[in-house]
Amino acid sequence: MYYTNDSYVFHNGKFLKPAEANTNLYGQTLHYGNGVFEGIRAYDTPEGAKIFKGLDHYERLIKGAHVMSMEFNYTPEELCEITYELLEKNNLKDAYIRPLITTGADMSLRTSSEVNITIQCWEWGKYMGDKLLRVMTSSFQRPNPKSCFVETKVTGHYVNSILSTNEAKQKGFDEALLLDMNGNVAECSGANVFMQKGNKLVTPPKGHIMPGITRSTVIDLCKEEGFEVEEKHFTLEELKQADACFFTGTAAEVVGLQSLDDYQFPLAWEESLGYQLMHMYKDLVLGKRKLQSV
User: What is the tens place of the pLDDT at every residue in 72-86?
Assistant: First the structure.
């Protein structure tokens, strides 16, 4: 589903067919999870294909490489230019984009001196779909920020997401909600969380979560629209007294929750702030709306 015989990827300075872009079986990314990635989307707008907040995503990718001590010399602007060329080669305007920095063969626990960059793209709908989600509280916690750099997309961190998603799916739910080490709500397996109580939105603060780019965009939309939004810690018990709840992420965009464990969110999704923000966000990425910070 990710590529065909006509597809191209960018790999270490060249545009190649996917089968030609090989990885090292002895590489640290494969053995230890020492790699960094991003999830980015391009949209078909009236002005043609537009990568949404591409510079922000590539700045985060480079930050991830830096904290993992990977030598990486591309700039965000260069990576955006390469990605537009890749989209054109693949004849894609609506696309999901996956840049991946991998490390070479080194069985020590020090970052390899070999660093590779691969950028892929493919057509991909909303990761969590369009229907309201049935979510369960995971038995797994979000990683402690003192154990790793939780604000970067290091490949190895996502074992935590796989474990929590597998658990939720095996129990008949759509998604998993993870708490942090203090028992506060953190995020779902691959997206940030907002709750609505009355006319106010609350989302967990940075520090123990992935500081999502979609999350920050939604906060900007709230400020522009005059929606009250607060970043603060809250408990699972508080979330189960909320009127509505939604997740945000590049892959998921904005998606509402139907329930959490045995709690049904009482406010109809179509009457919630999340529903309005879902449409505002879509208008924004499609070029139908402008935002001062974009």
Answer: 899 999 999 999 999
